[in-house]
């Protein structure tokens, strides 16, 4: 599929809708499309600077919206916080995983949909533990094996939600791309 105005508009709409979805109140823990966007962008977009920009832009827009809601007293979630750059670096890394996904092979998309959230879970929670992240009671995780295990255990609901979300959104993104691409081929042959 060539990069045309319709495709570019679709990608921009994807970023905005994903950003808006991420700030919905009461959505399940970790159920957000950003990991799937990173994998999709890495796999589908040939110009890698745009592949990296897509998930990062989506994260930034939703973080900015969270901050506006927080400042207005409508959300308890801050949009911008210390250590946030780690999340952006992780999402750039998830985009790299997408480079290795052949968009035409469902098993690779499925494997990526499990690998992406797993890598994010393992790395992000290690940094939460290492950086003095707080548990539900507001106490820093101790710098022990037990403290690290507690940090990972507390994040399991987010991990589970991100696995489900990534599978659902990868199915939508890669499936929609395949349908659009097959329709374009049919149109070109007619």
Quick rundown:
With 190 residues, this protein is an all-alpha fold.
Features:
mainly alpha, 190 residues, Arp2/3 complex 21 kDa subunit ARPC3, 7 helices, 73% helix
Give the number of helices: 7
Structural class: mainly alpha
Q: What global shape is seen? A: globular
Approximate helicity band = over 70%
Distance between the termini: 16 Å
For the sheet with most strands, the description reads: none
Radius of gyration: 18 Å
Encode the helix/strand succession as letters: HHHHHHH
Q: What's the multimeric state?
A: single chain
How many DSSP E strands? 0
Beta-strand percent range: under 5%
- The mean pLDDT is 88
Which architecture would the CATH scheme give at its second level?
Orthogonal Bundle
Number of domains: 1
Low-confidence stretches: none
**CATH uppermost class:** Mainly Alpha
CATH fold topology: Arp2/3 complex 21 kDa subunit ARPC3
Q: Topology, pairings included?
A:
Blueprint: H1 5-22, H2 34-44, H3 48-71, H4 84-99, H5 106-130, H6 145-154, H7 156-189
Helix pairs in contact: 1-3, 2-3, 2-4, 2-7, 3-4, 4-5, 5-6, 5-7
Written overview of the protein:
There is one protein chain. The chain is built from seven helices and no strands. With 190 residues, it is mainly alpha-helical. The protein is globular. The model has no long low-confidence stretch (mean pLDDT 88).
């Amino acid at each position: 599929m060539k990069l045309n105005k319709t495709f570019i508009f679709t990608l921009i709409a994807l970023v905005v809708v994903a950003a808006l979805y991420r700030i919905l109140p009461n959505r399940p823990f970790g159920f957000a499309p950003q990991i799937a966007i990173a994998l999709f962008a890495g796999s589908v977009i040939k110009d890698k600077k745009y592949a990296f920009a897509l998930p990062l832009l989506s994260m930034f827009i939703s973080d900015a919206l969270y901050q506006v809601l927080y400042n207005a007293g409508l959300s308890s979630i801050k949009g911008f916080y210390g250590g946030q750059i780690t999340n952006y670096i992780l999402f750039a890394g998830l985009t790299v995983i997408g480079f290795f996904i052949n968009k035409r092979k469902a098993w690779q998309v499925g494997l990526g949909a499990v690998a992406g959230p797993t890598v994010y879970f393992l790395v992000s929670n290690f940094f939460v533990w290492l950086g003095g992240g707080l548990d539900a009671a507001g106490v820093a995780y101790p710098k022990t094996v037990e403290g690290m295990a507690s940090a990972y255990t507390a994040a399991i609901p987010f991990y589970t939600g991100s696995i489900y979300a990534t599978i659902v959104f990868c199915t939508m993104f890669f499936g929609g791309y395949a349908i659009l691409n097959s329709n374009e081929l049919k149109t070109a042959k007619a």
